[in-house]
Amino acid sequence: MPASRPARRPLPLTWLGVAPFFLFVGLFLLLPTAYIVVGAFRTPQGGFTFDNILALNTPTILSAYWVSIKISFWSALIGCVVGFAIAAALTVGGLPRSVRNPMMTFSGVASNFAGVPLAFAFIATIGPAGIITLYLRSEFGINLRLMGFNLLSTLGLVITYLFFQIPLMILIITPALDGLKREWREAAAILGATGLQYWRMVAFPILFPSILGTMALLFANAFGAVATAIALTGPSLNIAPILLYAQIRGDVLGSPNLGYALAFGMIVITGLANALYIVLRARSERWLK
To answer: How far apart are CA 75 and CA 189, in angstroms?
Structure first.
């Protein structure tokens, strides 16, 4: 008598709730990424080639990558320092919940505020004819341009990126700070440790992987910011996102396949930064559980 086949278990209906997420990821993340990777190794006629990858080793493209790395690094570093200080004041600093809740709400909004609206906001505020720029010049005789400040520059882009980098740091590091156990501080105090010694020998070593991982995430976040950079500086600043936009847009000297290679290089850099964040975050969470 043949053995009866086990009945197939129907797919749980709960999976239908996450089906739109997987569809979104597939259509707008995986498929475009695969298209870019394939295009980076294709000729305009559709053949296979490494010339697009080798063409990245030119002074203009290498300089664009280097400027993008510097902007991403400094915005990530400053964002980590300032964001950590604000998050520490909100959690272990004893600020009332009436301050913490609005700050967390604002951070959730500001961390996703980028692109043309963010660029316009900064141009209208501290741009060459911005409100604050004109006010300082007319009321106090302070000319930011003569002092060397230019919003449409590397420094200006770093300052603009900080608007969403600092809130993102606050959102990510706050749960880690909340995870510091009160018993650790009490034990350190019983053993005669000061507050500074507690942070230097207990809290910071535990939080360091999380802080370093978040900095890697902020780096990737700034490195991949295309719309804000283009809207703020246009073609005046030689960074990877703007160079990528010029190649794919199809200008007279544009090369879409070289643009795909540029995007592939950006994917590799941001992918490594995100992988570092995941590894360090997992290591930090082992202590904070």
So the answer is: 36
